[in-house]
Amino acid sequence: MNHGFFTIISRAEFEALLKGFGPLDTKRIPLSQASGRVLAEDIVAAHDWPLMNRSCMDGYAINARDIFGATETNPGYLECTASLSIEKAPDISLFPGECARIATGGILPEGADAVVMIEHTQSMNDEEMGTVEFRKSAAPGENVMMRGEDAQTDKTALAAGTVIRPQEVGLSAALGFEELTIYDQPRVGILSTGDELIELSETPRPGQVRDVNSLTISALAELAGAVPTRYGIIKDDLDSLKAALAKALAENDVVLLSGGSSIGVRDLTVQTIESMDDAELLAHGVALSPGKPTILGRVGTKPVLGLPGQVTSALVVMHVLILPLLRHIQGDAGAFDEVRRPMRQAVLARNIHSKPGREDYIRIRLEERDNDLPLAHPVLGKSGLLRTMIQANGLAPIPADSEGLYEGQTIGVWMV
Amino acid sequence: MNHGFFTIISRAEFEALLKGFGPLDTKRIPLSQASGRVLAEDIVAAHDWPLMNRSCMDGYAINARDIFGATETNPGYLECTASLSIEKAPDISLFPGECARIATGGILPEGADAVVMIEHTQSMNDEEMGTVEFRKSAAPGENVMMRGEDAQTDKTALAAGTVIRPQEVGLSAALGFEELTIYDQPRVGILSTGDELIELSETPRPGQVRDVNSLTISALAELAGAVPTRYGIIKDDLDSLKAALAKALAENDVVLLSGGSSIGVRDLTVQTIESMDDAELLAHGVALSPGKPTILGRVGTKPVLGLPGQVTSALVVMHVLILPLLRHIQGDAGAFDEVRRPMRQAVLARNIHSKPGREDYIRIRLEERDNDLPLAHPVLGKSGLLRTMIQANGLAPIPADSEGLYEGQTIGVWMV
Predict the structure, then answer these.
(1) A104: domain range?
(2) Which catalytic reaction applies to this protein (chains A, B) (predicted)?
(3) How many CB atoms sit inside 10 A of residue A97's CB?
(4) Which run of H or E residues covers position A269?
(5) A210 and A300 within one domain
(6) Given this model, what pLDDT does residue A262 score?
């Protein structure tokens, strides 16, 4: 393979290659630690949930046909025969013309099929029992959560591959799952290369740069639920890089090499990847700007990526490609879906030119406006400056087939 | 105070009360753990960054006036006198008519004021030195990051109150900050009350419910960077609740009480809060649906909140009010800003009716469409069902002064 020039592929092609990796192994963890992880086994309900028909409101359990047609001006009247405890199944049944006081969560008694909110009723005496006026009718099932509406006995309540949000934690708790089987969080090894790099504790001489990239990339990997390990600054020679990559591969699921963007460093990254056993170079550039000099290799079943040396470019590549990869190998099938991007609509404040043939990511600072979409200001400045990413709160993708975007146009801005 | 009826305040009024709390104490932590936290002290640069004028590209360092007017058809020619190492300051100066090979990140030599990308040049012989053809002119400063563009000596590079994203980690690293002073992560105590509640390990009898809320609320609090502690199921009596609240207040910065929504339980929550020393009830309901029976109190300097007992209502209240509170007391001044909501624009698939006078949060499932905004389907079903929050991937707020939203209307959907 000739490494002297780029074989550049589109973002879609690059993503297709990334989707070829994973998923990771699975493990059981306490439910209290499961939020953000991806379910690796179906959750099958041992019992219906709700267990019984339950009231959604504080009010009266009734039979809908007993107050059919009731209105403010033509109310209906029922006799309240009980005030039901929320903690246990009711020991009464409703007969025609009767109602029972019920609290939110309370179980409907036999003979009741709906609940009327307390606000639409009026007790005709000062006690809870006795005649109650209903100023509203109800449909059967109204204000009642029916048995099994959340989960049914022996049916899948949550399918493998579901991303566990707080609400999925809630349903798992309702069904008594104290542990869940989830996909492992990816261990990500991060190697910095570049003889100009120095430790944070050192003071740079002209030409030297503190190791900005490995800490930045580490913080980005955490956003996708990964567990990063930094392997420090590796010398820019093949033997040092080979030894460091072999160690990082042994200890991680993904390895990210952050080096210079120059052709020399890129070639060294490629040589290092290719020197491993069962290694394959999959992509040697991607049609993104910034982010073009991104290298993708495979060693065994593990992805190895060479990231651009400019930290601002690496940031964009991480957001666009690597964070979705890290979620994908956690079993999240929709990790690359556009819908998963934190995208806001905004109105562009000035024209942006873009070179067709590559997807451009423009840094955007959003200005909120009352009763209108935010205004999207492109952040000006050299793309290598960190300041441009610090002033920005979003990225606006410009499609590869576009020559730019126009002032006043509504665009999607991806919050970062 | 009469607890028999609600004193309901608007979301804006409730937020104004929440903004009265915090900020928490500060502490120093390693930069590698700072992502997501809020900076509590300005970062002042000890030196300019970049340290010198540096190239953004692989190419040739030139003086712009030497190739003024160069084009494809009328190229300019300069003599390359050096190939500069990236690691150290150049030991040459450029004289008129000269250029020097430079890599991304390399320092510009004396006499150079711009860089021309390698792609726009052609070496006239096979070696790096000698005559080089320039098919493009350059403006002074082009492709150069100027000294001090990211940070200037003794100036604030990042201000206290900045939320630390990966890019802020990067700038801190560039300036040599191995530790940062940040606001503490809030410790959040979570108490569940309700005699109908049972542990996850138990099998519910009719009327019993596993303690869904405390795990769900705990997972939500983590989304805002809080450290939750669950205090288990507390008996529905004043003495038990007082003892549990006192303990939770001693050990946390915020206490969340998750109880029933019924008037009786609400009154008990209010009594418990008011029984503490230096306690004040601040709000006794908020004009949100769901979420109306939300109680806000203050004990000493700490907020105590009574959340609705229906877990789906508690979820909405957490997203709308409590997660911003938890970020606010971490020193994040913009925590309540609308811009911080993960809001997507979508086209509503059907009419939604809303009662004026309260802000309604409608559960939405987004359907992605090619080349168009997603379609927003309201999730139907009793609001107390967990299924409705599991099928949803967003919430659509309907303002308090609106009677509803219309099919085909573009709305903001808050991803949850």
Answers:
(1) 54-145
(2) adenylyl-molybdopterin + molybdate = Mo-molybdopterin + AMP + H(+)
(3) 13
(4) helix A263-274
(5) yes
(6) 62
